[in-house]
Amino acid sequence: MFSFLLAHKALSIILILLLICAVLHKFILRVLLGMVIVPENRIGMVTKKFVLFGASKSLPDGRIIATKGEAGFQAKTLAPGLYWGMWIWQYSIDMQPFIVIPEGKIGLVLSKDGAEIPTGRILARKIPCDNFQDAEKFLQNGGQRGRQTEFITAGSYRINTYLFEITVTDQIAISENRVGIITTLDGDPLPSGQIAGRHVDGHNNFQDIDTFLGQGGNRGLQPQVILAGSYYINPWAVQIEERVMTEVPIGHVGVVISYIGEDGKDVTGEHFRHGNIVQKGFRGVWLEPLGPGKYPINVYTMKVELVPTTNLVLNWANARSEAHALDKNLSTITVRSKDGFPFNLDVAQIIHVPANEAPKVIARFGSMNNLVSQVLEPTIGNYFRNSAQDSDVINFLTSRKERQDAAKNHIRQVLDEYNVNAVDTLIGDIVPPEALMKTLTDRKIAEEEQKTYQTQRMAQEQRQGVEKETAIADMQKEIVKAQQSVEISQRTADATVKKAEGDATSMKLQVDAEAQATKMRAQAEAEATKARAGAQAEATKLNASAEAERIAKTGNAEAEKILAIGKSTAEAYELQVKAMGGDNFTRYKITEEIGKNQIKVIPEVLIGGNGGNDGPMSGLLGLKLMEMMDSDRTINKPKEDTTVNP
Question: Which one of 3.30.450.20, 3.30.479.30, 3.40.640.10, 3.40.50.2300 gives the CATH number of domain 251-432?
Fold first, then answer.
């Protein structure tokens, strides 16, 4: 236990001795030898408390940084490392971290000491000083106090913060399809009569503002713009306004009106006296317009007026307006006719501005809206008002096409003087007064009713004609029927004649055949009985020949008789048909047959009572009388010839 206490006491003594030695060592090194160690990530800012001998004891008036050993903030700093002679009673060392500028940032520098900035300037010019890391060189070479044109980019810097104040800010970034419009805050004054500075090259999109100022760049609005991208631009020297790029759509041209540049020579000649049109780069309306596309135009120094080059429709109508909105202020035209009726008129005008004439239109009117309001609106409105006063409403309505053609020709001639082509003029809806419309409607209804009556009358006449033709057709049917009856009768008679002729011929042939057969039989029998007797045979032959000749003659006579009877009957029938007509002849023949065959159509004797007591007796007597008449008729009836010719 005792030994442990001795050891612990000895260790305490050693520690105390070491501490005393360390304190003595630091005191010796820092106080007696003036040793200072600056870490690797620090910079030593030196303040001199007093001057012992040799150097000036105080700074010049207006200075706060010592460059020649004066007491005060020293321009020279201590970089990381070991330094001697920096006695604690004479120097104060402030360890500051490095100045670090991140990516995408820049460091703006404000100098707290230096020469005065010349009158009329707001920024101190660039001085070679190793990115402000050599403050002594900066001051000795004439560096100026205040905001510096030069800045530092991303990185680490050993900068004396007693002299320089660093402000970290973002890079300038311009988005796609946009432009940066530049306004510089320092430089020479703008030339007289100009709204923007002159064009200066070599400043790398205003990233080297010292070159811009060194070449005489002007403060204020600049004609140049910067495109999409990231830029190291000092915002103390340059202000940037981001704007959308100027777009010229398809079907348009962009007429450029420049507000800057020298006055150019007018290229339109003596005949065009409505403004100056100049070549590209001069002040005025440029002769060559911009085609469809996107352009980095400085909208403060130039204006691009869009002019449609396709057919453009303008409507003088309350309820209709096109997408281009040039006709949004146009309304239906109210006119008054010759007979004092006011009525509304819708008109559509189609125009076309040629691309090469667009600069003249803009030089004359300034914009397409001015063209519509100053030329088209009064020209078309007054033309139709004058035209309506020369005619009554009815005539105006009925001659619409002719008036449309006349308006087209008149407006074309007027617009040709303004370098605009009039494609067509169209009259739209015409709204006459309601009372007049009622009158016209009533008149039209009356006309239509009259047409209806005429149509109905024509229909009745056609119906009568149809009925007449139908009656004629029906009669024609009867006529044809009668003609057919006559033809049938004639053909019947002809058939009867032919039949009679056929029968005669047949009978003749039969008689000839019978005679020939008899002759052959006679010859055969004569040959068989030849031996009997020559005289008897000859007599028999003669008798046979005579008999045959008689039979032949008798047959011929009978045939000719039948033929003659048939012909005469047919001719008689034909004559009777012609004389009496087909129907009458038919009725006659029927009557003849009834009489010939003694057909009883009605009773020959009507037997009936007289209503007295002798009624039944009278009936019996009538029946008996009829039987007696029938028997007499039978007795007196001639007998039929039953003789048969051999």
Answer: 3.30.479.30
